Amino acid sequence: MSWAGDGLIAQLRRPPGGRDARTMLLAQCVDRTGTGVWAAASVLYFTFVSGLDARRLGLLLGAGAVAGIAGSPLAGRAAERFPVRGLLIGCHLLRLGTMGLLLVADDFATLLPVVALTCLGERAAKTLEMLFATRAAGEQRATYQALSRSVANAGYAVGAGIAAIGLGVGTTNAYRALILADALSFVLAAALVWRTREPAGHGLVVAQGQGRAPDAPDVPDAPSYAPSPWRDRGYLLFVLLDIPMNLDDSVLNVGLPLWLVHHTSAPHAVVPAFLVVNTVLVVVLQLRISARVEGPRGAAAAVGWYGVTFSACCLVPATATGGGAWPASLAMLAAAMLVTLAELMRSVSSWELAVSLAPPRARASYLGVAGMAQSVQKSVGPLLLTGAVMTAGPAGWLVLGAGVTGLSLVQRRAGLRRLATLSAPRESVTAAGGPTGRR
Questions:
Q1: What are the tens digits of pLDDT across the range 58-82?
Q2: Which of 123, 125, 318, 431 could form a disulfide with 68 if both were Cys (CB 3.0 to 4.6 A apart)?
Q3: pTM (2 decimals)?
Q4: Three-state SS for 265?
Q5: How far apart are CA 428 and CA 212, in angstroms?
């Protein structure tokens, strides 16, 4: 790929999709900066300002995670009927409204739907950004995804830095200022999205004149038949297997910090370094790793490498229970590096396979269902780490690594099989002298 040797800054100036893609990347950076502010401050805000105890806080965050699961398929379904650009602006404005309500909501019954709507809008917005990139970047979507990941992580880091200032002040007004900062990011992001143009395939994602049902009447302007992802067992298998392929997120944010605190002699100050290591590696390496994933089959191969790297990450904390502070600190930082490498491969493979394994004429609804994998993992992943792995000790890490590695091989094989099935009809049409063949 010609872009593989270009620097990050050069790629951001000339991303696949041109001016609109560049504006959308800027909107994502602004959005993620605000999200980073709220992510770093939300738990403390609900504890010290809203006065929630641990039980109600857990219920609140759990409800938000469940609502996030619904956000992806709802966004995909809506994108088959309405322009992606308008829907994305709507998601930003929805979250602007819910952030404003947080400033006046002071009881659990009110906070519950507010947080649920916020998480639903956030997950829907990410799915719509994925659809926008799929249309705008086309076959160069892997490049766009790499740039998007780098920009998003930089935004999260800036947002966490801003939150640190407010948390250092620690007053109620400081917490509310952080909420306003998050709300401002949604205003700016919506304004930037407004400046873009709807990418090719305005409105409906369903391609006209393709994939007509066998018994449909031959009417020139009749809408084409679009398959449902909920009836596609092959694609649902991909989405199901993609859930454990996202466990690197919970390992980095939940598993490694808890293990360091309770099972090693490393100082607690090492925990923030996990985020620093993750952010730096994503910004520096995402483009390079994406350059090595060539097309759908390369993405399927990357799933296998994800399992191997994830297993290596799990092996490190399993053997880092003894020794002094320095060896334990270095071991845990090495685990953070390995899980970040796994994340880099997963981000490319999941993205590419979610697009490639979906029928083009119904890609919006399919990608909406695929987006559920991350949301489900965010709901069950922390429970798996805290309830099973932490309880089982070093053996829990070994079982987790072996299990994910085995499932990654199943995902790789299933992906290659489906790719072969999808390419078979096109090859038969070409051989028969179809549109791409000779008559």
A1: 788 888 888 888 888 999 889 888 8
A2: 123
A3: 0.73
A4: coil
A5: 18
